[in-house]
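Design job #97: recover the sequence.
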């Protein structure tokens, strides 16, 4: 019988809230050797995800966008809104400042094959698993899928 996401996911994943201090969230990631955390509100609803890539702005900083001056006007050669978003992430102190708020999710009843296709197609490393009320019930990572593959070949 085909495995489902519920069969393989990590249940009750460690999570943070949008108002968690970023330093504390980073410590959770490091202490637990994980690459991402679901961000939940008081009702356990998913509002975002904090991943290692979201934290890279803290270290790398932000490059000032290229611009030219023409008749006392500044003309940006790249979208200045993107610069503002990157700057906000680089200076963020709370999880909500740096988290990704558009999160791809999956439900526990989906097949592991569907989850693997989704992760591959969207180039993501982890999928929050949510119920019908959008509450986090688990987390599925690429590592979970690979470990299940190893078990099924025994």
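Job complete. Output follows.
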């Amino acid at each position: 019988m085909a495995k489902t996401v519920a069969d393989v996911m990590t249940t009750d994943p460690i999570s943070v809230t949008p108002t968690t201090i970023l330093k504390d969230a980073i410590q959770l990631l490091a202490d637990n050797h994980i690459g991402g955390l679901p961000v939940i509100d008081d009702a356990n609803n998913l509002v975002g995800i904090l991943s290692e890539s979201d934290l890279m702005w803290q270290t790398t900083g932000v490059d000032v966008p290229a611009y030219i001056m023409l008749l006392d006007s500044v003309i940006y050669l790249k979208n200045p809104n993107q610069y503002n978003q990157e700057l906000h992430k680089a200076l963020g102190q709370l999880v909500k400042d740096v988290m990704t708020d558009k999160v791809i999710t999956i439900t526990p009843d989906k097949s592991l094959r569907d989850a693997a296709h989704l992760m591959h197609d969207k180039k993501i490393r982890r999928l929050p698993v949510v119920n019908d009320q959008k509450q986090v019930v688990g987390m599925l990572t690429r590592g979970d899928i690979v470990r299940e593959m190893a078990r099924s070949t025994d």
